[in-house]
Design goal:
Structural class: alpha+beta
Helix content: 25-40%
Mean pLDDT: 96
Low-confidence stretches: none
Strand content: 25-35%
Shape: globular
Largest sheet: 10 strands, mixed
Strand order of the largest sheet: 1-3-2-10-4-9-8-7-6-5
Number of helices: 5
Order of helices and strands: HEEEHHEEEEEHEHE
Number of strands: 10
Distance between the termini: 36 Å
Oligomer: single chain
């Protein structure tokens, strides 16, 4: 059942999944609607092996398909303009998921994102976030859950520089992943391919690198 959740998530989030070899540009109304944080994600793609599904708004499919006939470099550089947001950035990430988070001990507490002292990025969430604070109540590390749909919830983690190297992030990610699975969804984890620290956190928390990739146009 849990294996099926990933397919349901990607089919819902992108508008089509799976797909055959090659790049498949598909239209989805979700690309024209606010995402979990109230902001648009006008282009989202997931690559698995030789297959890529690139999801854009239905009225942008023709332009993006034309752009995709060129090189990958041309596609990525021209994608923001092709989806109507020329000033936005292209994000290129490793796409991970886990059905068996690492059995690390819990590290944090679930609190309201409006709790005083939390960093601004955690305040974007509308449901409880998982945080670790020191004995004076100061924020050290935290995880928010991006609930893209009923089947897939993406984890975002951040740790203050002074608290890095203690293993807090990996414990929080594993703890949050267990909560996502309990909610009946599959936990996912995305990070920039050059972010080796985030990659180490993912691996330690039970999110293996299967060679999958995600790229898209997001607000800067």
């Amino acid at each position: 059942m849990r294996d099926r959740l990933l397919h349901l998530h990607l089919a819902t989030w992108l508008g089509q999944w799976p797909a055959g070899p090659g790049l498949h540009v598909v239209g989805s109304h979700r690309r024209a609607q606010p995402a979990w944080d109230g902001r648009l994600r006008p282009a989202v793609a997931v690559s698995a092996g030789a297959s890529t599904v690139l999801s854009v708004a239905p009225d942008r499919v023709a332009a993006v398909r034309d752009l995709a006939r060129g090189s990958v470099r041309r596609l990525l550089s021209g994608l923001p303009a092709a989806v109507g947001h020329p000033g936005w950035a292209v994000h290129d990430d490793v796409f991970r998921w886990s059905l068996a988070p690492a059995p690390l001990p819990d590290a944090g507490d679930w609190v309201s994102p409006a709790t005083p002292g939390l960093p601004p990025w955690l305040r974007l969430f509308d449901r409880p976030v998982l945080v670790v604070r020191d004995d004076r109540g100061r924020y050290l590390s935290g995880v928010g859950i991006k609930r893209h749909d009923a089947y897939g919830h993406e984890l975002a983690v951040g740790t203050v520089p002074a608290a890095r190297g203690r293993g807090l992030a990996r414990r929080l990610v594993a703890q949050a992943a267990r909560r996502v699975l309990d909610e009946g969804a599959v936990p996912t984890y995305l990070h920039n391919r050059r972010n080796t620290a985030s990659a180490r956190v993912a691996e330690a928390a039970g999110f293996s690198d299967r060679g999958w990739r995600s790229f898209g146009v997001y607000p800067s």
